[in-house]
Amino acid sequence: MNFRDSSSWVFRALWMQRTRTLLTIVGFSIGIAAMVVLSALGEGLRVFVLNEFTQFGSHIIAVNPGKTETFGVGGLLNTTRPLSLNDATAISQLPNVEEVVPLVMGNAKVKHNQRARYTDVAGVGGAADKAWNLEIAQGRFLPADDLQRARALVVLGSKVKTELFGGVNPVGRFVRIGSERYRVIGVVAPKGEFLGTDLDDMVFIPAGKGMQLFNRQSLMEIDIFFNPRSTSEAMADKISQLLIERHGFEDFTLITQDQVLVTMDNILSILTFAGAGLGAISLLVGAVGITTILMITVTERTAEVGLLRALGGTTLTVRMLFLGEALVLGLIGGICGVLLVAFLLLLIYLFVPGLPVALSPTIVLGALGISMIIGLLAGSQPAASAAKMTPIDALRAE
Amino acid sequence: MIKLEAINKTYQVGGSPLRALRDVSLQIGSGEYLSVMGPSGSGKSTLLNMIGLLDRPDSGRYWFDQVATEELNEERRAHLRGENIGFIFQSFHLINRLSAFENVELPMMLAGQPLKQRRSAVADVLAMVGLSQRASHKPNQLSGGQLQRVAIARAIVMRPRLLLADEPTGNLDSKSGGEVIDVLEKLNQDGITLITVTHDQQLGDRARRHIRMVDGSIHSDQTTYENGHVNDHRKTQKSRDESI
Amino acid sequence: MRVSDQFSFNRQIFLRHKVRTGLLLLAVAIGVASVILLTSLGEGARGYVDREFSALGNRILIVLPGRKETTGGGPPIYGAAPRDLTLEDANALGRIPGVLAVAPIIAGTTTVAHSSRSREVITLGSSDKFFAVRQLEVGVGRILSPRSRSEPLAVCVLGIKVKRELFGNSRALGEWVRVGDRRMRVIGVLEERGESLGLDMRDMLLIPVRTAEQLFDSPSLYRILLDIAPSADSDKIQEKILKLIRSRHDGEEDVTVISQDSMLAAFDNILATLTMAIAAISSISLLVAGILIMNISLISVSQRRQEIGLLKAIGASSRQIKQLFIGESLLLISMGSALGIGFAFALITILAGLWPSFPLQPPNWAVPAALVVAFGTGLVFSIMPAKRAAALDPVLALRGLQ
């Protein structure tokens, strides 16, 4: 039987029983829609988090004091093997290194006249704004001073600035951090959150001053930004060698952006799979729907099956015709499901713009592909049932 | 054309077995016109189904055009059926969602023949049965007689050599029934072998050769000629067997 | 019609159409089972978190140096502030009425070595109280003594993993190890115990707080843990703590106090919401099952036209016909739900037997919720077919013409 005839046969058979075809399609499309939306949500979340991590570029290596055995949180704690400002300076002189940002963080009270605020204090280097994509709203960022000769200068985060200065321009004025006076030389434009940390509720001072302020002998982290001419591995090797020379041991941990992304990706893929899994349950029930209805149909059209065989139709032909009905149910269900999803996403976009959802062509094609495959699987039992009938049994059943 | 040798068929009805055909042997030549009659349960429909390759015997052999059909697989049998045999059923077995035209073209469609060829063939046979005007009508728009004629058109559209009719007039009034028989007999005159199974004595008498079945065996098998001579085929068969 | 008659009437119909009934039961069962199983995961996670928190001990307050003003943000985790939180502060806090025990913590990383083996480990400097507050026990030897509260003793307690890495199977008790640049004697090894909210106690070194002060050359405390009496008012004590710190820190309230209860409550909320969201999402499958019920009911009605006509002709009212069909659907749903519930609980029991630590705990509301949704959708979706059946004209139906 040629393709045109088969399709026409299948469509007419489905059209004859419009109501049941429609209901079956509705059920199946809900299943597909559920799966697509939930995978899209999971995928959207994954992309969102990954973007948060890669917003600073991909050629970054972070060095923390202490070895990996301590989960890399060594930076936050005291250590007997300090990472020093001199280390940072030395690293900055390696070839292919673009920026080096030393980091020490803590919490302190920042005061101006009568107003005061406890806020996060980041002791960094002069390149931090470039490295971390911080836009300057007023004034300028910390100068690229010699790391050892840290001056008492501070750049305010937008929230701190508003709280302490209101609408007044703070540049040139003084604030107290801890017990020392710092001169404000700039204000950072609002940046928002990064994984829970409010980047606007922060002030930036030179790393050297930070170490003094918090009475620390070691930096918490050194971030190294390198240019694309070198690979992560090559860069990591060079930095490693340098620090081993300087320290005598490998008492530090190196993490490349790639490693972070791989780990994150693995964890986040779980989200996408979880989403797909949840949706798959509804899809499964939708598939059971197709099987049920087709089984009923085959039973009802027993005489028709017998006739087809009597007129010369082979077992294969009969099987293909019923599989065709299943396939079409699946495919149309898939298309309706995707349309339903598009509609839902539109609603989400209108009412909750912030929600991260990603509907790529891959997902759409994947959804249609899966619909067809599941349709076929759902129809396999009914089709086999029909094919098994001998012409005589079928005709007799009338 | 058709040779049946010691065909046996047993069905399970309820819990007990029913022997529908017992050692049936039969030879039919090309172009013959036979009727198969007998009481209910005599096995005549079963015989028809065997000949039509719709069912397989439990034992015995069936040659169609010197081809041993029991050696063929299901697909080959379907092919043989489609090319050579046309069926006419008591309850028509037309598909309600298709028009007359589409019902008739069904065998050709199953064989994979292209649309153009189908169109002309269908138009021809519809003309032959006198229903060219009704080609686009659906079964629910046709009378009983017209339905059976559509079924006949479908049965002959592939130019089969053999036509099997199971109670063709069973659901029809006498006028329509007459029209249908006329069509069938005309086809026979054109060379198609025609076998009818029927209760109706009048219908059965119209055939040249009469087979009578009782309890699964052929009770009598006679051809009556115009000059009154009766040829008993079973006698001829017996002597043929004995002379070997 | 009596209920029992209705049952047997329906039963015959189900038996006549085994395949379609079976598949419909399957659809409902899948929906119900998935709601129960998935919410069990969520609830199990919540139970896990609850247990972990209560394993920490009774009522604990945590004091951290530094403060965040942004509401809703996390606590200051950096542990670094211009003014140190000192041992003296901790001792002062211990004198607040209602406070049962104080455990000051200095935290850092250092190398611990024995003969040729060495490791970098997280090191906590604290006192004997720490063991009580964190409910830690030694498998060998003893915990830090009360003297460790104020004296820089050269002793340490090893986590079980650290002991194995440095000593293998030989005895560690009484041996000397190098910690950073000094030597200390091993007086105890912690019992085997897994992670406790992120800190792997097997992979740790515990030394007296003053020793840590010297080792890391810094008197600033990382945290102070306070164990308060069950009868004490947590909020009042938190106020007192802030007041005390203010008075000791020149009027600066530069610390954050977290109570274990509020942390637990926060987690609880998140997980509870998540569980409910999962329940809602898996209920979508019951919606799909409902559509299937409607589909099959409609088919059933059209196939049983004559039967319905007959029933009406012999005196059944429209209402009774409706009830018959709706009753049929509800019966199917109950059977399917029972299957689903049975399967879900069987699976949970098996999994609990194989992996006792895996968190699977069906919430109390899971079964009722699943049933409500299943019956609700089933009811809604069988009303239309039932109405159609009830509206059949008996004469036409009997003649097969409708």
Summarize the structure.
The complex is a heterotrimer of chains A (398), B (244) and C (402). Chain A is built from 12 helices and 13 strands.
Describe the structure.
The complex is a heterotrimer of chains A (about 400), B (about 240) and C (about 400). Chain A has helices spanning about 5-15, 20-55, 85-90, 130, 160-165, 205-215, 230-245, 255-300, 300-310, 315-350, 360-390, 390-395, and strands at about 60-65, 80, 95-110, 115-125, 135-140, 155, 175, 180-190, 195, 195-200, 200-205, 220-225, 250-255. Chain A is of the alpha+beta class. Chain A has 2 domains: about 5-50 and about 265-395, no CATH class; about 60-225, no CATH class. Chain A has a 6-stranded mixed β-barrel with strand order 3-4-11-6-8-7. In chain A, strand 9 and strand 10 (about 195-200) form a beta hairpin. Chain A is elongated and about 100 Å long. The relative contact order of chain B is 0.18. Chain B has a single domain (about 1-245), classed as Rossmann fold. The two termini of chain B are about 20 Å apart. Chain B is globular, with a radius of gyration of 18 Å. Chain B is of the alpha/beta class and about 240 residues long. Chain B has helices at about 45-50, 75-85, 100-110, 115-130, 145-155, 175-190, 200-205, 235-244; strands at about 1-15, 15-30, 35, 60-65, 65-70, 85-90, 160-165, 195, 210-215, 215-225, 230. In chain B, helix 6 links the parallel strand 7 (about 160-165) and strand 8 (about 195). In chain B, helix 3 packs parallel to helix 5 and helix 4 packs across helix 5 (about 145-155). In chain B, the strands form 2 sheets. In chain B, strands 6-7-8-3-9-10-11 form a 7-stranded mixed sheet, with helices on both faces. A 4-stranded antiparallel sheet of chain B has the order 2-1-4-5, with helices on one face. With about 400 residues, chain C is of the alpha+beta class. Chain C folds into 2 domains: about 5-50 and about 265-400, no CATH class; about 105-220, no CATH class. Chain C has a 6-stranded mixed barrel. Chain C is elongated, with a radius of gyration of 33 Å. Chain C starts with a helix and ends with a helix. In chain C, about 40% of the residues are buried. Chains in contact: A-B, A-C. The interface between A and C is large, with 65 and 65 residues.
